[in-house]
Design goal:
With 287 residues, this protein is mostly beta strands. Helix content is 5%, strand content 40%. The chain contains two helices and 18 strands. The chain has a 16-stranded mixed β-sheet that branches. The longest helix has 9 residues, at 33-41. 54% of the residues are buried.
Length: 287
Amino acid sequence: MNSDPKATSTIATGGTPFTPRARQAGLRRLISISALLLAALGSLSTTPSRAQDIPTSPSFVDDFKSFDRARWYVSDGWNNGSHQNCTWSKGMVKLSDGVLSLGFEKQKLKDRDFVCGEIQTKQRFGYGTYEARMKTDTGPGLNAAFFSYIGPTDKQPWDEIDFEILTKDTSKVQVNAYIGGKGKNEKLVDVAGGTENAFNDYAFVWQKDSLRWYLNGQLVNTITDPAKLPTHAQKIFFSLWGSDTMKGWMGAFADPGRKLSLQVERVAFTALGEPCQFPESLACSVK
């Protein structure tokens, strides 16, 4: 979920990328001038990949042994709109022992009392397998997300594919897709053992005629209706943020009294028709 809350723009180190998800709050993200500039510079190094119509950047695997600033933008110094109770801060993006952590904690920055973390790719990706291995914290009023998004900041229609963990209930993850800014494709999926007790594998396979979500290698949702399938290359996002106003969806926010985190061990994109890149990849077994 981008925060446009999805329709927002995120910008990273050195810029302002955008983040989607304004879903219940109208236009969830206010697009800053810096975001527009960054987006313009941002990720047009796409190249056509065999077996697909949508241009895509190359396949990759990032295990976060280091932070690749050529790949990632880090959101810093702004927020996605009135629905968001934290300011994006580069200080909330940390790397340690092969794990990327996005933080959320009480710290006054600009007009918000909390700071939070978000990253997005500088490049856009098309049909293929998207995978992330991650672990969340717990707490009402917070959203820990792995998703792809493109939208107005990049002068494109709003398309998005989501895994969103509303940490008020870590026994579930919400999958969703937005096409031309229209959602209503939500589904809650049970996560055995919870999202906070161990790392889980989240993946979606996006093809011209289908969109499939997987949790720990198991198929949990499928869309085949052409009207509900994205048609524009997207950036990959990770974010952890909170809201005081979106209570019906995220729960009533309460100050956690400590720093919370979304931890990511690995993220990968395997273009459609390309060989899998690591033994545990969903792309090795699912076509």
